[in-house]
Amino acid sequence: MTERERSLILRLARERRLSEAEYAELIANRDPEAAQLLAELASAARRAVFGEAVYTRGLIELSSICRNNCLYCGIRRDNRLAERYRLTAEEILSCADEGYGLGFRTFVLQGGEDMYFTDEVLCGIVKALKARHPDCAVTLSMGERSRESYRALYDAGADRYLLRHETADSAHYARLHPAEMSFENRMRCLADLRDTGYQVGCGFMVGSPYQTPEILARDLAFIEGFRPAMCGIGPFIPHRNTPFRSEPAGTLELTLFLLSVLRLILPEALLPATTALGTIHPSGRELGILAGANVVMPNLSPVGVRKKYELYDNKICTGEESAQCRGCLEQRMAAIGCHLAVDRGDAPNWTRR
Ligand code: SAM
Ligand code: FES
User: Pick from 164, 140, 166: which is nearest to 71 by CA?
Assistant: First the structure.
């Protein structure tokens, strides 16, 4: 690490921001020494806000049916080999009941853009979930919808919404998505979610095809300005039945580096150590926490459907029961001196409605 890199990192830790050109420089010139310094500063920043608590969110994967055709995604519409399923409202509620018993106080309902989940259907599910578990937060991750839809779901009780921006560079966005999807609409959705009152999560894949340090710098500058409550980043992993099947996966090293940078930009953010990170390395999630992340999202979906929600190859936790997954993560976190928190884990300073 040069003196220049060290001074950029120390300034980032102090001022919580760099210019876009400086982010690009930091990424392009990174080395293990810089990564180590960033991880130490990021861990200290995480501990100062959250102590040793790691928040958990129980992930329920509602549907593998999707109208979209993102070039990277295993459940894209054109993947004729994908196995499709859709959970019933009863199945979703029973996954949540089981999760509640295991100590989860946030449920993330995620799925492909399955048109079955109209506002009426999804609002019904959110209301029923909140009625059964009023002390729990509901996070939705159901893709791009209208402003009115986001409002209706918020009024039904949804607290948070995850919609990765995927890339903050519109030309890069166009290379990852079919022409019918647009960067402008993605940004419109994020603005609408923010206006509606949600705790909003954005994020991107690390190592997606055509990504450069300059594009990552743009992502960081976007996140610095948008100030999301949550930010999900994980490595891109190719799926054998997508146009990106032969592209290399994102690396552990760059993902950890960026998690540390993000923690310094947003000390109070909820940053997951993702399943994708656990997929590319057996200790990926633990290393993610040590680099600055503070959230894990074990799977609560019925075991019978887990393999079918296959966004990328070799996804972990597809054969485990929910209790096993929770227990496994409890042990993994204990091994690095952390514990799983049993509470909603709202963004600090968030005023509840
Ligand atoms: N349909 C919702 C949406 O678009 O936000 C939620 C499901 S979508 C599959 C969730 C996230 O998975 C995407 O935002 C994307 O970043 C990630 N993802 C998709 N394919 C991936 C891949 N091959 N490797 C890593 N992450 C992937
Ligand atoms: Fe699912 Fe380890 S977290 S089995």
Answer: 166
